Structure formats: C-alpha cells, structure tokens
UniProtKB/TrEMBL annotation:
Residues 1-22 are annotated as: Disordered. Pfam families: Pectate_lyase_4 (PF00544). This is Pectate lyase. One of its GO terms (molecular function) is pectate lyase activity.
C-alpha cells in the first residue's frame, strides 16, 4: 500500500465565503467519521476529519457551491412549494414547471424514457425506498435550461438510456447520495457545455460506464466548461469512466473509493485537466489513464492517493488548482473505504 508524492500547487485563490460553514459541518460530524473508522485495521485507521462525513449537509461543497454565472451557489427548489409525487406523470409535470419546486419522490416510479428537469428544482427521495426505474432524468433542453438543480437520495435502476444526463449548458447542479446501477448507457453523464457541478456520496455498481464528462472528441464547445467536483463516491465494481474526461479543467476527483474496477479508474483525454487527490484505489490495474482509446491525451496531477493491489497511475502536465475556486479539506485516503462505505448511497441523510 503506497501513497504518491504531492505535485506542485498553484497559489490558492480568494474563495473563502463558504469556508466558515464548511468548517462547522466538519466539526459537527467528526464523531460519526470516527465511528466509521473503527471498521478499518489499526494500520489503516488514521484519524482524519471528513470534509462531510456521511455527507449530511444541506448545501454542496465543490464546484456547485461556487458563485458564478449569475448564481450564488446551488439552491435547487428552495423557496418554492413542496410536493410529493408517486407516479411518472406527476414527476414529469412538476419537473417541467417554471419556478422553484421541492419535489419529494415517494416509492418506486417507473419511467418509459427521459424526463426533462428544468431550472430551480430539488428532486429528493423520501426515506430509503425512493426509486426511479426504466428511465432517467435529463437536466435541461435546448430551449429550457436545467440550471440550479439538486438530485438526492434516489435509487436509479434499469434506465433505458442514461440514469441522469446533465446537458445543454446546465450549470449549478448537485447530485448527492444516490444509488446508480444497471442502466443501458451511462449512469451519470455530464456534457454539452454544462458547468459547476458537484457529484458527491453516490454509489455506482453493477454497470460498465459510470460517469462520462464531455460529449465527444469533436465537441470543442466544452472547452472552458465542465468544471466538476467528484467527492466521496463509491465506484463499486463498475468497469470504466470514473470519470472519463474531455476538455474540462479543472476537474477535481477527491476522496473517492475505487474497488474492483476492471478497465480503469480515471481517464483524462483531449487536453482536459484533472486533479486526482486523496482517493483509495483497491484492485484497480489502471487507476489513471492519460488518453484513452482513440481520444488524445489530457493532463493529470495526482497526489496523496492510496493504491492497494493496483497499478501505477499515469500523470502528465499541470492542472489549475480547485482551491482557486473553493476551499476544501482532504480526508486521509487510508480512511476513505470506511468513510465512503458508511456514508455513500441512499437512506443516509434523513430526507
């Protein structure tokens, strides 16, 4: 079990507005993290306060928290009516309405395709049994933006296409504490000039293509967009795309748990800039690729990761520091398996 040396840093930027409440959340939840760590062997159980143990926060960290593009962070449907939906027709109706809505999904809802979610929506699963199956959610269309959307605490299974597609210039999106499995194409794709997204505390399993970032090798409109934070996700036996990145910079891959990923962990292609930091790779022969398949090489800086029965990561070039945009704390990567398995997925945040 080895850790990689740190790479050089750019100077941190001035982003400090969210730092106080971020620190308060860490302190309030530190006891829960300590309990999770007791499941580790003594050699691995180094105490480390989590950036969000169990992820039980009301607001995102990472890129979805950044004030930009006319928004102060990501608030979803806050301030709008709260409704509970139990059918596909009800979900489609409220997800497509103008204005903010907090939409609570109760029980299992079967879709026949993709439902379009437009701006200012929170779609929240009730308890531990909320499920969307057979179809998925598409954030925005070419005429109706999917900005400022939150999706939390929902099990996505058996989608006929993507489970969640963040597309068509959607920005300020938070996808948190969901469970993704068994779709047809990608479980969670972010593409077509979307920006300022946080993907946190999700479990991905029983599928090949987990998380694509960037539409294609020829879609150069994504340059300067697709700034995404992936933190505290559990990539549990999925084969590839954790994420696969094109053009984006910076992409922050922080404190995720990779286990038994057959093809690779992270791939940076088409001059993307990816920071892979504080992750735990277990039984991953190719934890990080620079370039993949027919896609040209990207850039990768990796630091403070742990590789257990795993290969050597590929690295290249330099990457803009995420601290230019937001503050964060890195969990001890040796503790990441216990922290993430205890906290990721549905039924963990009391919605």
């Amino acid at each position: 079990m080895t850790s990689r040396p740190s790479a050089s840093h750019q100077s941190p930027g001035p982003a400090r507005r969210a730092h106080a409440r971020y620190r308060d959340r860490m302190a309030a939840l530190a006891a829960a993290a300590a309990t999770a760590l007791t499941a580790l062997p003594a050699s691995a159980a180094s105490p480390a306060p989590s950036a969000a143990p169990y992820g039980a926060a009301d607001t995102p960290t990472g890129f979805a928290s950044v004030d930009a593009l006319g928004r102060n962070g990501t608030t979803g449907g806050a301030g709008g009516p709260t409704v509970t939906v139990t059918t596909a027709a009800e979900l489609k109706d409220y997800a497509g309405r103008r204005g903010p809505y907090v939409i609570r999904v109760s029980g299992s809802i079967r879709l026949s395709g993709m439902i379009t979610v437009i701006a200012d929506k929170s779609i929240l699963g009730v308890g531990s049994t909320a499920e969307i199956t057979g179809g998925g959610l598409q954030l925005g269309s070419t005429t109706r933006p999917g900005n400022n959307v939150i999706i939390r605490n929902i099990r996505f299974t058996g989608a006929s296409d993507d489970s969640v597609s963040v597309t068509n210039k959607a920005h300020h999106v938070w996808i948190d504490h969901n469970d993704f499995s068994g779709g047809y194409d990608g479980l969670l794709d972010i593409k077509r000039e979307s920006d300022l997204v946080t993907v946190s505390w999700n479990r991905f399993h029983h599928h090949s293509k987990a998380a694509l970032l960037g539409h294609s090798d020829t879609y150069t409109a994504d340059v300067g967009k697709l700034r995404v934070t992936y933190h505290h996700n559990f990539f549990d036996g999925t084969d590839q795309r954790h994420p696969r990145v094109r053009f984006a910079e910076p992409v922050h891959v922080l404190n995720n748990y990779y286990r038994n990923n057959a093809l690779y962990g992270v791939a940076s292609t088409q001059n993307a800039g990816v920071l892979v930091e504080g992750n735990h790779f277990e039984n991953v022969a190719h934890p990080v690729h620079v370039g993949y398949d027919k896609s040209g090489p990207g850039r990768v800086v990796e630091r403070d990761n742990v590789y257990v029965n795993s290969g050597v990561p590929e690295t290249a070039g330099t990457v803009v520091e995420p601290r230019t945009y937001y503050p964060y704390t890195v969990d001890d990567p040796a503790a990441v398996p216990a922290i993430v398995t205890a906290g990721a997925g549905v039924g963990k945040i009391g919605l």
